[in-house]
């Protein structure tokens, strides 16, 4: 009688990218990169790094519309069936409308574009307030100071700023090591996601998990606003290695905690000094054309 092969543990990563929103940028490289990601993380080209289980990459099947209300409705749907909802996720295609999120998400990576600086920026902080620019449909978010006192407000009780529970400094160090042979690419951590739809989707995921008391296992990456085939190919390779780096960072936490359930409870609802600090002139020098 043959032995039954044990099914290996799987680490699941969900990825989103954005649709175009500026006339000067008819193609959004964030979606071009996301849509080309492999279904599973390939083996590393070298032996460095943390040993991982099989890493599955699920890409939300359509570019996210750069619209505040679309994002506000979409994010809870992305986090899965445990979030009771009566409406399907807002989508422009059958693939989006029929999307069924995985039963468990170990990591969610949102990707957006920024310019003109040619760098790849992991965003540290998501901010609740200050969304003053209209979206692609010329609509404002419309949240007001009075909403903060309304228990029915979707972000009621959420701090003005939140950070991911992922150790981004550790992930950045791993990312740079994994991509050292891929050319001279500027990989960095940013303190200001820009108070537009990129910041908004990141904050929406952070706030959703914060309200659940769950580990904020979400990250946001800004990629350069260039969608040439060469830049998309470079971006795809860098994002694959970013996913590897984030997964290694989170897997190390899980191994230390002893189980996935124990790791999921490792969250810090205290607001860090970095998140509490106001955006200053120095912090604003991020090279992003959409910053205030």
Automatic annotation (TrEMBL):
Keywords: Hydrolase, Protease, Thiol protease
One Pfam entry name: Peptidase_C15
Top-level taxon of origin: Eukaryota
Keyword Protease recorded: yes
Entries under InterPro entries matching the protein: Peptidase_C15-like, Peptidase_C15-like_sf
Bilayer-crossing regions: none
Keyword Hydrolase belongs to the record: yes
PANTHER family linked to this entry: PROTEASE FAMILY C15 PYROGLUTAMYL-PEPTIDASE I-RELATED, PYROGLUTAMYL-PEPTIDASE I
Family indicated by similarity: Belongs to the peptidase C15 family.
Protein name: Pyroglutamyl peptidase type
Species assigned in the record: Sporothrix epigloea
């Amino acid at each position: 009688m043959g032995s039954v092969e044990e099914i290996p543990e799987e680490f699941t990563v969900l990825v989103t990218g954005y649709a175009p929103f500026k006339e000067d940028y008819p193609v959004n490289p964030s979606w071009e990169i996301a849509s080309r990601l492999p279904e599973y993380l390939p083996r590393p080209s070298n032996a460095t790094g943390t040993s991982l289980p099989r890493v599955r990459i699920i890409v939300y099947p359509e570019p996210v519309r750069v619209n505040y209300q679309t994002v506000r409705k979409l994010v809870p749907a992305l986090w899965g069936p445990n979030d009771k909802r009566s409406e399907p996720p807002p989508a422009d295609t059958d693939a989006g409308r029929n999307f069924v999120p995985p039963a468990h998400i170990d990591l969610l990576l949102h990707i957006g574009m920024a310019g003109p600086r040619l760098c790849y920026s992991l965003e540290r902080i998501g901010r609740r307030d200050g969304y003053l620019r209209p979206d692609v449909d010329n609509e404002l978010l419309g949240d007001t100071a009075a909403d903060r006192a309304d228990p029915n407000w979707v972000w009621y009780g959420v701090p003005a700023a939140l950070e991911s529970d992922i150790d981004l400094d550790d992930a950045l160090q791993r990312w740079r090591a994994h991509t050292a042979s891929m050319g001279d690419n500027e990989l960095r951590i940013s303190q200001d996601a820009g108070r537009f739809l990129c910041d908004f989707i990141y904050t929406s995921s952070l706030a959703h998990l914060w309200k659940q008391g769950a580990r904020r296992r979400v990250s946001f990456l800004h990629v350069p606003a260039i969608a040439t085939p060469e830049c998309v190919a470079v971006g795809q390779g860098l994002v694959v290695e970013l996913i590897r780096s984030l997964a290694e960072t989170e897997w190390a936490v899980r191994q230390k905690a002893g189980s996935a359930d124990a790791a999921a409870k490792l969250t810090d609802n205290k607001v860090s000094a970095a998140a509490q600090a106001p955006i200053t002139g120095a912090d604003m020098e991020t090279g992003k054309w959409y910053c205030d």
